[in-house]
């Protein structure tokens, strides 16, 4: 079945089993590798991306649900000219260790600062349930707060 | 352009290098000696204090470094990056001698066909120490080669040529490294130059951002799963969820009929579905009907029972004074407690998979492993080809923690590729990663102590029952029976460090039905938990402050004990130890020594809604020379989070012959909710850089236990902590 949607602002049309998780479509059909496979059961968040601006765990989202929608992966977060506040803050706080969980965390965090422009520690803790085994959590919290500040400054 | 060294030139620095490398369990040890216990104890004590060397296949600089045409230098790291930030530290060391700005050094992992592979792999927090001198010597040699080539080309004296910021100059002449590399065909390898004194270091000691930072934030860092090949197929194997189970009957007809399936393989113990995409392979493998032959349906109780002090083979690894006889004949009451640590999974975010392409009896492998050299050997023997026909490329690792030293699926991937005649990617499912893995073994510890009439600690003993972690992998059953028990890894950190006059430690080797292996910090995790929990209980029992009691115990000890005192004194300052903790808050400390790095933590806990809450962790670490303080800080934070996770949540259990946890919902880890206030202090009280990836994990669990004891008056002696434990 042909499924049309847009990926990082570019239209695509693919012909796969409509039940195939969006994760594998993005990674293996569209060759965008930032979105990671961690658990396959919507439990770790490594595969987090946005569909029409909402956060999804793509390992558990059949591609047919993306039909006609706008999918954004980490590769589409920043523009050519403007680094996304989350990525900027991630660099400044030097968050990643092994890095494998980081794309998922950044996608979840990008949505968070959009919804809650000035999040408290509590907001961050209760809204992001992704898993990181390297223990980058303390820096993730700091980076999200820093990103919120960068975002605010860029809006003024 | 690579700088091609003339290969028949004298390999440099052999002697100095060998001095640091020739030791590990040297081949000259006569097996007959090993059976007797003093020899075993001697070895155990020697190895415990030894620096772990790097065993590297070549010292020729062109294997390590390549001058690229943009006048940057490519460093092919023999140590792999799994998050621990080793490549940044090594690049900093190289930059010191290469006389090139750090930003101009690019790093990639060496592969078995390009660059140097460390046959011991990457682990045990030894990389930076092992390479501290070699990497600088090779870099300095490279710099001298470039200078010599320039002197020859210009017809000037070598002494007139200087190297700075990637540019060579003499008189008015200048040339970049890239230009000289481009125009030189015959290279001369000089004697190993003298190294810069540490006072002249430009980078070492300053915080430098991780070299892989940009890639990992922008999403361009590549892991095994991100690699591809033309005509790549995706495979999933069928794995038995039961310990040591075998196929009784199998029917793959339905699986073979599934869409997009290329082949269903069934060849002795290898059963796999190969498909044109991952989803099809996953769907099809579920259609295989299989009945398992289960030799024994193990239950958790039996596993715990097996690992018990008094069972198995005992090896005494420490015997100072006459602790055993004092403890058994003492008229005073002996204080005795027992501790347990559970089995644990590494649960690293990237499952341990392989991309394999076998063609014309040559193997091209991509695997995010901690031990590329071992994988190469494994595949050569599995495929019956020469080692040099196996190329192992190692991309970034999505976490290692010891898991990627242990069993892998590279042989399966290679066999599948050979059968289908195409490149194949075999990435385990998370369920397979949990259930067909290698585990931190469960342990049991018995500690005893007795005080003399003055109230001084007179004797202390520690018995640890543990399965093997690495002995079998290194030398098979033979090594294990010769050495008696795995004091190298599982027993690492078992000895009592406090200079008590009479102290004794034994390790009991026990057999378990599951594969056991190393897990971040190796034996330090279990042994520090047991010993330091016991010390906290001793303090509680004798109504002493746990930190002050340690300071007292450490008096009159060796150099290591003196460093421990400094670490504890610093901890005291940083925590305002003198002021009483708030109501409803418990606090305590713990300390460990992991191959000369000393790490101590003071932890505050409370109980919130019936659950343990870690409020604050103050950690002080003395790792000798701190190469990249910012990187160390990051590792300590990570180890603290992993320590909290292991102390509060993690446990692998066995039920009806299976590993009970199949995915993260059944093996919860610490999350953002568990982040405490963290304060890290780095001390540098030794002249070499010791490891930092693992040591800071050691004190976390026992300091939490001590803090709970302080808060509730009750000692929790097994992990993970449960407040309702009887
Ligand atoms: S891979 Fe999707 S949540 Fe883990
Ligand atoms: S950085 Fe390694 S899992 Fe998060």
Question: Would you summarize the structure shown here?
Answer:
By secondary structure, chain A is of the alpha+beta class. In chain A, 36% of the residues lie in helices and 15% in strands. The interface between A and B is large, with 56 and 65 residues.
Which terms would index this structure?
heterodimer, A: 156 residues, alpha+beta, Ubiquitin-like (UB roll), DNA polymerase, domain 1, 2 domains, five-stranded mixed β-sheet, 36% helix, globular, B: 726 residues, Aldehyde Oxidoreductase, domain 4, seven-stranded mixed β-sheet, 22 helices, 31% helix, disordered N terminus, binds FE2/S2 (inorganic) cluster
Structural commentary:
- The complex is a heterodimer of chains A (156) and B (726).
- Chain A contains five helices and five strands.
- Chain A is an alpha+beta fold and 156 residues long.
- Chain A has two domains: 2-76, Beta-grasp domain (Ubiquitin-like (UB roll)); 85-155, [2Fe-2S]-binding domain (DNA polymerase, domain 1), CATH 1.10.150.
- A five-stranded mixed sheet of chain A has the order 2-1-5-3-4, with helices on both faces.
- Chain A starts with a strand and ends with a helix.
- Chain B has 726 residues and is α+β, with helices and mostly antiparallel strands.
- Chain B folds into three domains: 2-218, Aldehyde oxidase/xanthine dehydrogenase, molybdopterin binding domain (Aldehyde Oxidoreductase, domain 4), CATH 3.30.365.10; 224-294 and 352-426, Aldehyde oxidase/xanthine dehydrogenase, molybdopterin binding domain (Aldehyde Oxidoreductase, domain 4); 307-344 and 439-712, Aldehyde Oxidoreductase, domain 4, CATH 3.30.365.10.
- Chain B has a seven-stranded mixed sheet with strand order 9-10-7-17-14-15-16, sandwiched between helices. A five-stranded mixed sheet of chain B has the order 12-20-19-18-13, sandwiched between helices.
- In chain B, α5 (86-98) packs parallel to α7, α14 (372-383) packs across α15 (410-420) and α18 runs parallel beside α22.
- Chain B is globular, with a radius of gyration of 27 Å.
- Classes of the chains: A alpha+beta (156), B alpha+beta (726).
- Bound molecules: FE2/S2 (inorganic) cluster (FES) (2 copies).
- Residues 37-40, 42-47, 57, 59 of chain A line the site of one FE2/S2 (inorganic) cluster.
